[in-house]
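Exercise: predict the fold of this chain.
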Amino acid sequence: MKFEILFHTLPAKATAKPAKLKYNKNGWVSEEWDDNSLSALKALEKLKTKFYTDGCDNKIAYTAAIAVNGRSNYNNEEIGLSVNNINYTQMKQLIAAGWDIENHSYYHEPYNNFNFGNDRAKNIIALDTLILKKINYKMHGLVVPSDHSGFPKAAKEAGYIFSTSQGTFDGLPPGGVPVYKDVQDFDLAPITFSSFNRMFYDNWTEMENNVKKAIDIIVQKNHHYFRFASHGIDEAAYNRIIDYFETKTNDKILFIPTREIMEYRLMASLPISYQLSHDRLVIEINTASLPARCRWKDLSFIVSSDAQIKSITLINGIDRATFNAQTSLVNIFKQITSWN
């Protein structure tokens, strides 16, 4: 991936570095719905009306994720074909809206009529294969079904970048370390694989109270995050939560799938070369070591120069770019949504 920054005047110096978080924001929040819940579609209607910016006056809609299963433990029905759950067509619609699809195990439980027993790896890989076959989508994160141990480690071994649970982390950081907090320091989360905690409530009075408390905390922090999830939705309570988030965070906190922010950090950790020639700074990112299942290949750069940015020229491997001449923030974008 390669691009060029053109300055208005000949700079005496010009350097750049990746922002710690996407769009140089202060923190991030993620949410998901488990078990192919149709409630995700109701949430989508609210989230697509709310925005933060990319730091360059462009609106970015809030996005979330849906955690899916493969087949029913009771009748072996393929859940993506059921009218009572998010189906494959709706998954594609969510992906197009910027949402992520997360692995929630092929069979939800290791018992009942149909199951893979305690074979965590088989559950993860079978669902990964099914979703790739049905919608050409590679997943990169796992939501632990129930509280079954072994899933976080199996997800890591499968090449995923994160798992999440209310309490099952297989000892992996950051969730597997002592001292549980709803709002946590992102610096404690390893780049290559993190086992995240999350708040989970189906009681939306509890959800509203606790998420609002987390919002009050995260706005006072830097580089922190929290995650929350449910099976259902109380639309009135949900609307109040999202409105509260928008007001309190004031365009400083990302509302984003966990996969997107984790893949951002992978991108920021790659080898990057910078070459200043006359009035142009050429930046090249070596993506050779990037996992093939990475969807978001975006980066935000903070440019330091005595000259103002005039324009951005894309050389290869990048879909588009935005910049802010006043703050010297530059964003580049490359996204994959189909793996044929």
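Check your answer against the key: Helices lie at 39-47, 88-96, 120-135, 151-157, 204-218, 235-249, 258-268.
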